[in-house]
Structures are given as C-alpha cells and as structure tokens.
Amino acid sequence: MKSELHVVMRAPWERIFPLAADVEGWPQILPHYRYVKPVPDPNGERRFAMGARRCLIPVTWEAIQRPLPDRRTIEFVHTGGVTKGMWVAWRFEPIEGGTDVSIEHRLELGWPLIGDFAARRVIGPQFIEAIAGRTLRRIRQLVEAPDR
After folding, report:
1. Does an H or E element contain 119, and which?
2. What is the mean pLDDT of each run of 10 residues along the chain (148 residues)?
3. Could you tell me the residue range of the domain that residue 132 belongs to?
4. Is the residue at 25 inside a domain?
C-alpha cells in the first residue's frame, strides 16, 4: 500500500516543520491523538508509543521519528502495532504563497492471503489516510491562524 496526501498551507515551511516535528506535543494540538510517549530505544533514536482515534476506534502503534530539517523531511518507521514496518515521510516543499506539505505512507503487511487487501482497502484508507488527513488539516488550521 502506498499513499500520499497533500495539503497546501499558507505559511513558510520553517513555521510548519517545528509543529509537525513536535510529536510529544501532538495530543495538546491534535484532538484525535490520545497520547505520545517516549520509549527507550537501544540505538538512541527518537522512539514513541502513540495512540489516536479513528472516530471511536482507538488505534495504537510505536514509531521511530527522524526529523531531517536540512532535507525538509520528517521520517517515521513504525516499529510496533498493526502497521509495523510502515515507512512514513512528511515533506515540506516551498511554493509561491506557502508550502505544499505531503505525507507519504508505504506499508506491506506480511499477512498470508489477506495482507495486501487489508493494507490497500481497509488499513490504508480507513485508518492511515483518515488519521493523517485529519492531522494535516489541523496543522494547517494552526499555522494559518492570524495570531501565529
């Protein structure tokens, strides 16, 4: 399953990037996030246990986050939960009048027979894209607010 969502935000990428990279603060600014907690990582990486909601359904996972401001990218690798192994990249592309913010997801489930179907038809559109889309819309709302 490969997915890419785009939202144009009327703000410079330098204003958006810190908000997107501050995953520990997401529960305070993203109503659909229940928690983001640091988890010790044997390699010293930024690893988090995360929980969100898709409507009333609680969703949990664990991920390593790699903020790469020099590349205007934030990468995640899911290390736990149903989406274990998923690779995610947030990209911030400056455009006239703002920034094209995209989130790309790549997920291959190793489940025999139903893995590809489950990833493409259920997990991708109903959970991953729904949660990521809501995240992008809320961050756009925050960075475009007149008081920022």
Report:
1. none
2. 93 97 97 97 96 91 97 97 92 98 90 71 79 96 88
3. 2-142
4. yes
- Give the residues across from 6 on adjacent strands: 102
**Residue 112 confidence (pLDDT):** 67
Strands (E), the chain: 2-9, 33-39, 46-54, 57-68, 73-80, 87-95, 98-106
CATH number at residue 126: 3.30.530.20
- Distance, in Å, from the CA atom of 42 to the CA atom of 122, rounded to the nearest integer, reads 33
Q: Side chain identity at 79, as an amino acid letter?
A: T
Determine the Cα–Cα distance for residues 63 and 86; give it in Å rounded to an integer.
9
Quote the pLDDT of residue 114. Answer: 73
Task: Region of 65 please: left (phi>0), alpha (psi -120 to 50) or beta.
Answer: beta
Hey, how many other C-beta atoms are within 10 angstroms of the C-beta on 58?
A: 9
Residues 39 and 23 sit within 8 Å (Cβ to Cβ): no
Closest CA to 92 of 147, 14, 4: 14
